[in-house]
Amino acid sequence: MAKTIRSTGQVALCQALVDARIKAGLGQEDLAVKLKCHQSLVARIESGQRRVDVVELVVLARAIGFDPFKVLAIVEAATEPDHRI
């Protein structure tokens, strides 16, 4: 079983966030401005160095303009059946 921070579900979440940001035509700095945070925070989230909680996922979805339920479906499909907390 993989560590949570590098699990297949976590990797899928990070990639889905990057894909959504790029599809929206936003750079990391653009997203940081919308979120009122530093670009380095966006980079850490996208690289998997910082985890995202459910409330933050909703905030990211609003800022980028994606459906959080679609991202959750991607993560659910990628998460190992025996993954532990």
UniProtKB/TrEMBL annotation:
Span of domain HTH cro/C1-type: 17-72
CDD domains (alphabetical): HTH_XRE (cd00093)
UniProt cross-references to Pfam families, sorted A to Z: HTH_31 (PF13560)
InterPro entries according to UniProt: Cro/C1-type_HTH, Lambda_DNA-bd_dom_sf
GO molecular function, one term: DNA binding
Protein name per Swiss-Prot or TrEMBL: Putative transcription factor
